[in-house]
Write a structure and sequence with these properties.
single chain; 152 residues; alpha+beta; Alpha-Beta Plaits; 2 domains; four-stranded antiparallel sheet; 14% strand; rod-shaped
Length: 152
């Protein structure tokens, strides 16, 4: 039987491996693989095949609505009329909101996007007998495993 688990790179992983060795799991049956960190920067704009769930137009649409109402209201007193000034207000509001959101994502959240300084997880694979599986799983959970799976 094989058990797969993921850990953050910290002392709890070392303690889990040493506890497993003390409980009778051979060193040859414990395999730890660190995941590589991302080397390229994350993309800001989504494609049709990948989306990160962050909308760049949410503030733009909100400001477009607000600016179009204000433009249409003021447009009654201006020469072009409320329709043109409402459309102008919507365009200005959308562009302003899009620029604000783009500034937030590119400048303020750059540290989050590049993931610098974050260490990847480590995958631990353990070969053991079926009667040891429950013990091994309990040891992994007690040493702060992020996830555990069993395969027969």
């Amino acid at each position: 039987m094989q058990l797969f688990s993921t850990f953050e790179s910290n002392i709890a992983l070392e303690m889990a491996i040493s506890t497993l060795e003390k409980k009778g799991i051979k060193k040859e049956n414990i395999y730890a693989v660190p995941l590589d960190n991302r080397t390229e920067e994350r993309k800001v704009f989504d494609s049709i095949h990948r989306s990160d769930g962050i909308s760049l137009i949410d503030i733009g649409v909100t400001l477009a609505t607000a600016f179009s109402v204000i433009g249409a209201s003021i447009g009654f007193a201006l020469s072009w009329g409320p329709i043109y000034w409402g459309l102008i207000g919507a365009c200005v509001g959308f562009l302003l909101g899009f620029a604000i959101r783009l500034f937030i994502e590119l400048v303020l959240k750059k540290k989050k996007r590049t993931l610098k300084g974050k260490h990847s997880e480590i995958i631990v694979i353990i070969d053991c007998e079926e009667n040891q599986a429950e013990l091994v799983e309990n040891i992994l959970w007690s040493h702060y495993a992020l996830g555990v799976a069993k395969v027969k």
